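We emphasize that the prediction below concerns an isolated chain of 392 residues; any contacts that depend on oligomerization or on bound cofactors are therefore not represented. The input was used exactly as deposited, without trimming of termini.
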Amino acid sequence: MRRRRLRAVLTTLALTAATLVTLPAAAPPPTGSSTGPPPDRDWSVAMVDSTMARYTPSTIGGWSYPVGLYLYGQYLTYRRTHDARYLAYIKSYVDRFVGADGSIGQSFNSLDSMQAGRLLVILHHETGEARYRTAARKILDRLATYPRTDDGGFWHADTASRAHQLWADGVYMVNPFLVEYGAEFGESGSTDAEAARQLAVYGGHLQVANGLLRHAYDESRTVSWADPETGLAPEHWCRAVGWYSMALVDVLDAVPADQPRRPRLLAILRKLAAGLEKYQDSATGRWFQVIDKGGRSDNWTETSCSSMFTYALSRGAQRGYLDRHFEAVARRGYQNVLARLSVGSDGRTDLADISVGTNVGDYAYYVARTRATNDFHGLGAFLIMNEQLRGD
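Result of the prediction step, given as a token string:
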């Protein structure tokens, strides 16, 4: 206990000191070729330094899952580089929302609002400060009363417009948090079981014969996009499937080998991986905004989901969940996501062709979404992917 307190004190002092140092301007990385930048540069560091130069912890945005995703990627970069500035930045962002007593002004009435809770667990682990545990516990307590489908799936949000709906996005918003919370605070028995249950319920509804998942499912079959017989949304939107794929491998990494639902989760992943391999674009190595309709002229390859699939396939093959040949599928995806990365005249990285936040819709809706540069959905997914594959 005394060692833990000492570590907490030393870490807090280091973080405090780091926040007093002005962030240096990112050193200009070399400009990439026409097919993207060279893979041997530390693009995680370049991207984090570029993003910290663009935003302070106060201007990066409110409590949200896109910022939470990006900062989780920044944390992975910190874990490898041990650059104290990276952790200090995350702490400064979170401390905007968490009081000294652990209070946090969030109602947690949607799964989206819970994703940044991973940062609370991270900061407790890194600093030992009890207030982060108190704040994180509010999410767990909210889940105890959170609405579910009849078979136990968490609704996407506790609102009339999202009632009875499961969105593939939602599994990433809550389940990695659950297993990480359980590991940090000694509650893995219950949190692992819940995370595995959610992935199995969602997968059971959303995965179809081609291995891919539909974006969403409506148990009531009343919302406009739902098929009146199946309750399914009409399309395979790539980032929704990407969220699910990342959550699946993260939870498999966390739950024990004898977890009762583990065989079911592995079966879902293997079927999904086969579908992703089938629909990987032969020309670019990336994946399309609407995954299975790449032959349409208005469809386009999207960077965030391509990063997510690349991560999941690489991690799955590395951990033995998937056949080793998926390493080559992932490597091809990785090289071609790098092709979407460039360096601007200001010396900062730019990541292109990222879909902005998206609701459930039809084909025309998805392909018409704005193709943004440096959207946090893409930056976070890129960092997670790059930290997995950069050393291969």
